[in-house]
Amino acid sequence: MTVILKRTMSTSPTSSKYPFGSPDRWFILSLVALDYFVLYLHRAVLGFIQPPLKLELGLNDEQLGWLQPAFIIPYALSQLYVAYLSDRFRRRTILISSLMASFVCLAAMAWAATFSQLLVLRVCLGFAQAASVPAIAGIMADCFSPRNRSRAVSIYLTSYMSAVFVAGYWGGSIAEIPTWTMSLGVNTLTLAGWRMALAGFSLVGALAAVLLMFLLREP
User: Fold this and answer.
1) What is the pTM of this model?
2) 184 in the Ramachandran plot: left (φ > 0), alpha (ψ -120 to 50) or beta?
3) Rounded to whole angstroms, how far apart are CA atoms 43 and 125?
4) pLDDT over 50 at 12, yes or no
């Protein structure tokens, strides 16, 4: 029992060797904050592109109103169960998988042609993102000690407000342009502004997922 106790104490982030947590804790914090920034970017952008979206798909106010609970309900309910994944598997894998699923759902929303398709994809986005926050909480708990954990959480939460600003400013600005035309060799791709906003932010998610694959370690 003495041996087990000493081994547990030596690997604890609050041990005398690392009283403030793991040496690379701030670097890991920046990566999980980036992850949460992108996830919130994906969920928030739809709220800033509604006028052109409503016009093109012919949606009414009631249909627009359903797009928010279509994300929130599956996101909230599934967290009661998907948190188990972070206890059972590597949290690094959960975070990257959740982010990849999120950008796939957002990219698919850029091609939605009807309200039903948009609604289903919002539900899928809720399920895709649900496992991320429990995994992030577990990683932060392992990397930081009680001496600086609250400060780490406050820094991490700034990614939320940053995402709201970027989604509102850049998402809205991109959506205001009626059409975007891109040359693809001999072909030309034309996207409506709101579709381009979704496609562009999904690409940000793909780049962030690649970054996490190379840089994020499992604490």
Assistant:
1) 0.87
2) beta
3) 8
4) no
